[in-house]
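I have been asked to look over a protein record a colleague put together. Thanks in advance; the entry in question is below.
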Amino acid sequence: MSASMNRPRPIFRGHIASTTDALVLFGACLSGSLKHIPRRIHNHEYQDLIRSGNVFIYEEHSSGIKIWTDGVSWSPRYSLGNFDIYRELEDPFSSAIDPGVGGKYAAHAPSSSPIDLCPLKPKGLVKKTISITLQGITHHLVSYYNVDDLLSRRLTTPTKDQTLRHTIPRPSHIASQSFQVPIGEEYNMEERQLVQLDSESFF
């Protein structure tokens, strides 16, 4: 296989607004119309691939990816519906960071870890993830966006993408998962949280 064919690429450009959006992409990968990424992203590829709007799906065994890495410092995980959300932090080892300067921090309790004292990066990325298991095989979706792109509607969703209009989530794919929030009850949940991004309650 050539190096270009083996290079990871986003399977979709847009935003995963709902579990249905994620299931459409999972279904497209399982049917062969989209491709799982074949391997982990290397350090020198982070700058080109870890961008707002990029969505990736990988399968643990075939890709060899046990832990997803992207070179970004992230806040602790925040559960939102059936997804996990992470906010981008300032570089924890940057000399420009002054914990005494105002700004929202990722953790409130004292800690010796530099990352616990880092403020959220202004206009930084949000990472949104979800996983499903089918026939004993786990598939992971990782998506990135920034708040401005989301609120300005610059990112389309899989359910509104014309190239995916014939991809309908299989009932068996839904029934076999243990989703915390029923399909269809999570719309606008994300945007309601985004208006509180500067409040203490987001984390």
Observations:
- Residues 95-105, 107-115, 198-203 have pLDDT under 50 and may be disordered.
- The chain has seven helices and six strands.
